[in-house]
Amino acid sequence: MTGTLVLAGTPIGDVADAPPRLAAELEGADIVAAEDTRRLRRLTQALGVHTRGRVVSYFEGNEAARTPELVEALAGGARVLLVTDAGMPSVSDPGYRLVAAAVEKDIKVTAVPGPSAVLTALALSGLPVDRFCFEGFLPRKAGERLGRLREVQGERRTLVYFEAPHRLDDTLAAMAEVFGEGRRAAVCRELTKTYEEVKRGGLGELAAWAAEGVRGEITVVVEGAPESGPQELGAEELVRRVQVREEAGERRKEAIAAVAAEAGLPKREVFDAVVAAKNAARPA
Question: What positions does the domain Tetrapyrrole methylase occupy (predicted)?
Answer without folding.
Answer: 4-207
